[in-house]
Amino acid sequence: MTREVIRSRSNREIREYAKLRQKKYRDREGLFLADGTKLLREALTSGIEPERICFTESWLEGAEPELRTQVERLETERKASAVTPEVLELISSVKSPEGVVSILHLPKEPDTEQLLSGRLNGESGLTGTASYVILEDVQDPGNLGTIIRTADAAGYDAVILTDQTADAFGDKALRASMGSAFHLPILRTDRLADILDSLAGNGFDVIGASLEGEPLDLCRATPPERLALVLGNESRGMTGTASGLCTRLVKIPIYGRAESLNVAVASGILLYAFAQK
User: Fold this and answer.
1) What is the mean pLDDT of residues 19-46?
2) Each residue of 60-69: pLDDT tens digit?
């Protein structure tokens, strides 16, 4: 098969895709970039719609047969294009690109009313289990991606982010999440207080991680049927407003001389302590 290869670094579409490395353009266009084979495979498996897949011919030659067939089908639909390695570098966020960068549509956010009532899993009324992790102003994309990945592994149903939290679909967060950002509904909000108040009113145990909380007995933690686990900013923790809206506060015991734990590490401990096994 003879295919057209994009060779010019001045190509208009490529230059537009390169802008997606900035959040304001991702938000404006409703698109994001995903580097590498792993994220492409996870996106296609999760039903994330590709706008365009840019790949080098050497990458396609080495791709596993099923993935290669999918990309070649998308190529016939003008949703995949071969590019030179030099062109791929313009849209990749890594120093040595693997050979494929996907331009994907941002997933639709979950329905807020369904989320707050705990009906994301299809239950009616205010019964049934639900578990969410809520992040208030977590700044580091690596921490964010790691928390999303852990929440996915521990069986949580959704992630809620304040508008000052890092972007879950930025390159660093995506790589850290290893595709888990495609598996869980993610809601961004500038109304955290209203969200916490509504969840508590709908029977959720809103548990905040705080140095002012009660020490958590990791061996005897009982997961509530409806859980919203809240973690705050890396340096200052939760705001007083968020803390005051939690139904209870917990802290992880520190047995050594460290003052605290990294938020991603703390989240892993708490997410599994309260996982609905």
Assistant:
1) 96
2) 999 999 999 9
Task: Tell which residue, 132, 108, 130, 103, has the closest CA to residue 119.
Answer: 130
Count of CB atoms situated within 10 Å of the CB of 218? 12
Percentage of the chain exceeding pLDDT 90: 88
Phi/psi region, residue 223 (left: phi>0; alpha: psi -120 to 50; beta: rest), is: beta
pLDDT digits (tens, 9 = 90+) for 99-147: 999 999 999 999 999 999 987 655 444 446 899 999 999 999 999 999 9
Query: Hey, what domains does the chain have and what are their CATH numbers?
Result: 5-105 (3.30.1330.30), 112-273 (3.40.1280.10)
Q: In this structure, which amino acid lies at residue 96?
A: S
d(CA 89, CA 97): 7
* Among 240, 236, 233, 242, CA closest to 267: 233
Question: What are the structure tokens assigned to 137, written together?
Answer: 């102003």
Q: Which pLDDT score, from 0 to 100, does residue 126 have?
A: 45
Backbone phi, psi, residue 206, to 5° = -90, 105
First to last CA, the chain: 50
**The pLDDT value given to residue 2:** 72
Closest CA to 18 of 113, 90, 99, 109: 90
Q: Of 153, 155, 133, give the one whose Cα is nearest residue 144.
A: 133
Spatial separation of the C-alpha atoms in residues 203 and 208, rounded to whole Å? 15
Contact partners, residue 92, CB within 8 Å, separation at least 6: 33, 35, 101
What is the pLDDT, as a whole number, of residue 128? 64
H or E segment to which residue 250 belongs: strand 248-251
pLDDT at residue 122 in the model: 52
Q: What is the number of other CB atoms lying within 10 angstroms of the CB of residue 101?
A: 30
Which has the closest alpha carbon to 61: 4, 7, 99, 103? 99
Counting every residue written for the chain, the total comes to 277
